[in-house]
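To whoever is covering the structure queue this week,

Two jobs came back overnight. Logging them here so there's a record in the thread.

Job A:
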Amino acid sequence: MKRQGISSLPFAYIVETKTKRGSRQSRPHIHGLAVCEDLLDATRLQVALEQALVPGLTWQGRGRAVWVKPAYDKDAPIVGEFLGRGSWMDYIIKNAHRYDVRLGKRRVFISHSLTDLIREAWAVRRED
């Protein structure tokens, strides 16, 4: 992320090994979120993740290895299923409590910059 110039980008992720409904095992995969001030930061994050997770990736006949999608607060559903950031948070942590021998206990990561941002938001909220 440092090479892409986004080392202070607030982000969090969880590694999970369950299917969408949580009933069966799947390959390990990551769900996460990042607070991007502009679309270029989201693109830089996508490139940084692809370089870190899929080194030597070639684009011949492949789709993206990492998908970065916006989560807006809207009344209309996003891709039919999810509504805004709140629902996305529910979705990414849905299997956080399920233990997997392949991963151990450390599967959730929250960056220091996101922790600071959350503390600041709660401080503002408490003042109201």
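Job B:
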Amino acid sequence: MRVMSNSHPAGGTQVQEEVPEPYKSAIFAVWGDAPTVSDSVD
């Protein structure tokens, strides 16, 4: 089992490279095109 996250750009790249359709489309339908967590620290 692999864990991929949309909070870092590499997570989306991993999904694009490693996950076949139709699973890839389903993941991005939930994730959207932008990370959900910001890397900036206040």
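Note for Job B: Residues 9-18 form the longest helix (10 residues).

Please reply-all if you pick these up so we don't duplicate work.
Q.
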